[in-house]
Design goal:
The chain is an alpha/beta fold. It contains 14 helices and 13 strands.
């Protein structure tokens, strides 16, 4: 039987759900500290596991055996045994060490953990390197992450594959455009997601300033103080820019589809360089053209994305992306089931 530790982020959960569709006996675990309710406690197929506070680091010596015992017991209850463990961060290294003699270890690296605050710095790098070496297969969500691990950890490239984040069939379906977007002067350029310090607000300001842009729609919560970036304040005061705030996840596909031209405005940073943005794959599934900065390696590599690099003329890129929009949408779905199919030979 297969166990995935853990599904505590939406992208890990989507991968885990796809894995269960292919392998129905897959066990999905959601560890959390005692007394805390987990976001996924009531989701079908997800098993919450209460562990001591600090379970991922300072109390791991106590927590990981408890997690292992729970997984082994569940497998036994289903008349099976734990044959494959999918581990989603280096915090599960003690579990990998314990299981390596009885189960295949798969490391599913869904982010650049070096960019996570408080995740151990160089010590965390060393732990990740050991986990990769223990794993039968290491799965990375971007080419940049895979290449760095192969180079720095001395891994066999044959045991390292790339399986980016993905999208869902609902993003390919026709939906009613939100009336708020329909009322805006077109063409409507737009960004959907969280607005934090990963966003290049100066780039958004330049997009809004173009005479070729009818409106700029920004859909999602603003998680940066208005005074942290002067461009945020100017965007809030710009009549061409329309902020719609956070929307329920169940409605996000309609908001994304309601935009004429998608904008992926990542700022330059190491974290953005290595990431695999779900918004990229959702917009590709919808089929509208995409205008983006070159900050994310995966976005910049994607065929058909109109990438604006340093020194590039933005108005020329905007003109090109508008021309592409006039030719109609070209939906291209790469689903979570497609990603799971990539690792199927290692878990069959």
């Amino acid at each position: 039987m297969i166990a995935q530790f853990d599904v505590n982020t939406i992208w890990r959960r989507k991968f885990g759900e796809a894995l269960r569709r292919r392998k129905p006996d897959t066990m999905l675990f959601s560890p959390r500290a005692f007394s805390l309710r987990g976001e996924h406690d009531r989701e079908e197929g997800v098993t919450p596991v209460s562990l001591p506070p600090g379970w991922a680091n300072r109390t791991a010596i106590l927590s990981m055996p408890l997690l292992k015992r729970r997984a082994m017991a569940m497998a036994a209850q289903r008349n099976g045994r734990l044959s494959t463990a999918i581990l989603t961060s280096f915090h599960y290294l003690p579990l990998a060490r314990s299981l390596r003699s009885t189960a295949h270890i798969i490391y599913y690296c869904s982010d650049d953990y070096r960019g996570y605050a408080g995740w151990g710095g160089e010590a965390g790098v060393a732990l990740e390197a050991e986990l990769c070496r223990l794993a039968t297969l290491s799965v990375f969500v971007s080419i940049a992450l895979r290449d760095r691990a192969v180079s720095e950890y001395g891994l066999d490239p044959a045991s390292c594959i790339v399986a980016p984040n993905a999208s869902e069939p609902r993003f390919t379906e026709a939906v009613t455009r939100p009336s708020e977007l329909g009322a805006l002067p077109g063409p409507v350029f737009g960004t959907v997601g969280v607005f934090n310090d990963r966003i290049d607000y100066g780039f958004l300001e330049r997009v809004a300033a173009s005479s070729q842009v009818g409106s700029l729609a920004l859909v999602g919560p603003l998680q940066i103080p208005a005074d942290a970036d002067a461009a945020v304040g100017r965007l809030r005061d710009n009549p061409k820019v329309h902020w719609f705030g956070a929307r329920p996840h169940a409605e996000i596909h309609a908001w994304m589809a309601g935009i004429d031209i998608a904008v992926i405005p990542y700022a330059q940073s190491a974290f953005n360089h290595f990431c695999s943005p779900m918004r990229l794959w959702d917009h590709l599934a919808i089929g509208q053209p995409i205008l983006a900065t070159d900050a994310c390696d995966q976005v910049a590599r994607q065929i058909g994305v109109f990438v604006v690099g340093p020194g590039d003329e933005l108005d020329r890129s905007i003109s090109s992306v508008k021309t592409a929009a006039e030719s109609g949408r070209r939906p291209h779905l790469e689903s979570w089931d497609d990603r799971v199919a990539l690792i199927a030979p290692w878990i069959s």
